[in-house]
Amino acid sequence: MQNHPPNAPDSALVIHDLIFKTGFSTILRKIDFVLSSGETMLLIGPNGAGKSTLLKCIAGILPHRGEKKIFGADPKKNYEMRKRIGYLGHETFLYLKFTARENLQFYSNLYGVPVDIDSILTEYQLSNFSEQMVETYSRGMKQKLALARCLLHQPDLVLFDEPFTGLDQQAAESLRNHIQQMKGKKTMVIAMHELEQGFDLCDKILLLRGGAQAFFGSKEEIKENIRDFYAANIVERRL
């Protein structure tokens, strides 16, 4: 397991002693990792391990304790830094009574970034449905539009929670290619259950188990098959 200085000069994301509680329950405890600019981290763990919660904490959606620095700044004190984050969660953050075009225009205005909406709609195979209200969309179509929303403003830190959910084969392949193109240019955290696919895409791996950090390190540290590694590390160790 690699050790990193807590505030390395090229650190894109520093998480130190992150804790998230709700009521009397501790959902995440003592999460510690550092990602350098351009690194991609695969976030894995069984259902209920805290993956989605961690992504929401990083994105600033959920309050939490501990240190979080994004490109050297505390996003709580630097609103402009939040504009450098792109987040795709289980919630699409789309306006269902808006059309696809209206959603993209809204987020373009929100971020203050002029975009070619027609090109984006074409890229995500939504041109033929651009004037249709999003509430009429299928799950896969909503996922495509949510991906477009997430990446609209060219964020430097991209947080993906199961980004391939609902996508057809063509859209999934397009997303894989897009992630490959972003590698080394964007810093990414990707939570996904497809272990082999995620392993191919990542540089680092963070495995959560029961809300705690079971492993963080580079993919080169994993000598066995990723499925064997996962199976061996998701079992709770008892004293």
Q: How does this structure look, described?
A:
With 239 residues, this protein is an alpha/beta fold. The protein has a domain of 153 residues: P-loop containing nucleotide triphosphate hydrolases (Rossmann fold). It has a six-stranded mixed sheet, with helices on both faces. The chain starts with 10 loop residues before the first strand and ends in a 6-residue tail after the last helix.
- CATH level-1 class of the domain at 11-84 and 155-233: Alpha Beta
Sheet-strand content, in percent, reads 25-35%
Q: In angstroms, what is the radius of gyration? A: 18 Å
Q: Which class do the helix and strand fractions yield?
A: alpha/beta
Number of strands: 9
Helix proportion: 25-40%
Cα distance spanning the termini: 22 Å
Largest beta-sheet details: 6 strands, mixed
The helix count comes to 8
Q: At the fourth CATH level, what is the homologous superfamily of the domain at 11-84 and 155-233? A: P-loop containing nucleotide triphosphate hydrolases
Write the CATH architecture name of the domain at 11-84 and 155-233.
3-Layer(aba) Sandwich
Strand order in the sheet with the most strands: 5-6-7-3-8-9
